[in-house]
Amino acid sequence: IFSIVVFGSIVNECYVNKDSHTPVLHCIFNENESACSYGIAVGIIAFFGCIFFFVVDLYFQQISSVKDRKRAVLLDLGFSGFLAFLWFVAFCFLANQWQRTTMSRGVSQGADAARAAITFSFFSIIVWVSSA
């Protein structure tokens, strides 16, 4: 759920026009396109990873080999640790870029979405560390 909030808030509200004269959209995080792209990428990876491991959990009882069960559990554990790291980087990167952002009319329109993306990136660290 947190990945959907981060991904959705960045895609929907974190691209704004710098002024009314140019139709070009800029990332709200200090006009750094990498910040928005990284947040979107981590959100998508987390979402599809959750779906994959949900399906693995559904079929876990049908896996008869102990080796295969062990691999599934270790893969889940490794993925959780990896995603906790990605969310930590996302939180630090987005918070740093938001701190450097100068407030303007366009930025203030998407400020709540930017704060939501940063907040839920932090919450995602806690969730993925606790699931590991």
Automatic annotation (TrEMBL):
Transmembrane region(s): 38-60, 72-98, 113-131
Alphabetical UniProt keywords: Membrane, Transmembrane, Transmembrane helix
Top-level lineage group: Eukaryota
Subcellular location: Membrane
Family matches, as InterPro entries: Marvel (IPR008253), Synaptogyrin (IPR016579)
Chief site of localization: membrane
Gene Ontology CC: one annotated term: synaptic vesicle membrane
Membrane topology: Multi-pass membrane protein
Pfam families associated with the record: MARVEL
Keyword Nucleotide-binding in annotation: no
MARVEL domain: residues covered: 1-132
Family: Belongs to the synaptogyrin family.
PANTHER family given in the database record: SYNAPTOGYRIN, SYNAPTOGYRIN-3
Protein name as it appears in the record: Synaptogyrin-3
